[in-house]
Amino acid sequence: MVMQYRRITRVEELPHRSEFKPDELFLVPTFELAEVLIANGIDSAIVAIDWPSSSEKRDLLHNPPLSIGSLLPRCAFQFDQPILVVLPTYNERQNLETVTDAIRKYLMTDILIVDDNSPDGTGVLADELSRRHPFIHVLHRPQKDGLGSAYIAGFQWALVRDYQLIIEMDCDLSHAPWDLPRLVYHSTSADLVIGSRYIRGGSVEDWDARRRLISQLGNLYVRMFLGSRIRDWTGGFRCFRRALLTQIDLQRVHAKGYVFQVEMAWRALRQHARVREIPIRFRNRAHGRSKLGWPTIYEAIKAVPLMAMGRMASE
């Protein structure tokens, strides 16, 4: 199939959903216009942002689509601030090299792999990648201690260095690497940018009914206690500004499992942070099994009411 570009320069030129063609790629001049397209149901994987090259903006004209379903940029976006992507890993050997390669195709950034002594050899592969690529760093932890503590360790590692934007994402291709420049761009006007499945234009693909129900009920439960200013409280694709992480006392973050995402967003709001959500399509992991289990759900059921009462802030 020969893919055809449709260049759109103004909101008035946006096609109606019924006019979308399966072989079309969309070329727009700004991130803002790209967000309008994505909010109207266009997959971000087929939206190309065509900016003039400069020290802060790199041309993003695309070659044919990659096998993972995205458009491959001619060169990665480069911004004027040091950026770090934190990748927590536990038994992610099958995904790790694919993910790190994909990240650098879309964004000029350093990558920190936080490995919890994975029995499948993920840490060994991480060290090999670090020797091969100066932008990859590895933080080894002695044992599996939860997603939240892995991210906290990664954030603390970043804060003793000069990184100004710190991104968290999963190491399983459920978070699309071609959305990374969108997160970074919108951090210019927000302290925390969340890739959201539950705002207009966001979605979840390839989940079974049980996983969808748990996620939707979980977010509904959180909104009942903490409000609806954030729609995707549990989403794990985020970009933090350094200043916000320094304001949050990371030593007091309690959550170990996926409720860590809720606690970090809650603590950000308590700091009067500017929070923005942008739509993403969350895809099921490429390899391996989800680490979401009943202990994580039970932790969230207990922790969220404590946040609502403000008790966790002072502990």
CATH architecture of the largest domain: Alpha-Beta Complex
From the N-terminal CA to the C-terminal CA, the straight-line distance is: 58 Å
Broad structural category: alpha/beta
In terms of DSSP E residues, the strand content is: 15-25%
What are the secondary-structure elements, in order, as H or E? EEHEEEEHEHEHEHEEHEHHEEH
Describe the largest sheet: 7 strands, mixed
Helix content: 25-40%
What shape does the CA trace take? globular
How many β-strand runs?
Answer: 14
Could you say what the CATH topology of the largest domain is called? Answer: Spore Coat Polysaccharide Biosynthesis Protein SpsA, Chain A
Number of helices: 9
CATH class of the largest domain: Alpha Beta
Mean of the pLDDT scores? 86
Uncertain residue ranges:
52-69
Strand order of the largest sheet: 8-7-6-9-12-10-13
CATH superfamily of the largest domain: Spore Coat Polysaccharide Biosynthesis Protein SpsA, Chain A
Protein architecture, described:
By secondary structure, this protein is α/β, with parallel strands linked by helices. 33% of the residues lie in helices and 19% in strands. The protein is built from 9 helices and 14 strands. Helix 2 (93-106) packs parallel to helix 3 (122-132). The longest helix has 18 residues, at 209-226.
Summarize it.
With 315 residues, this protein is α/β, with parallel strands linked by helices. The protein has nine helices and 14 strands.
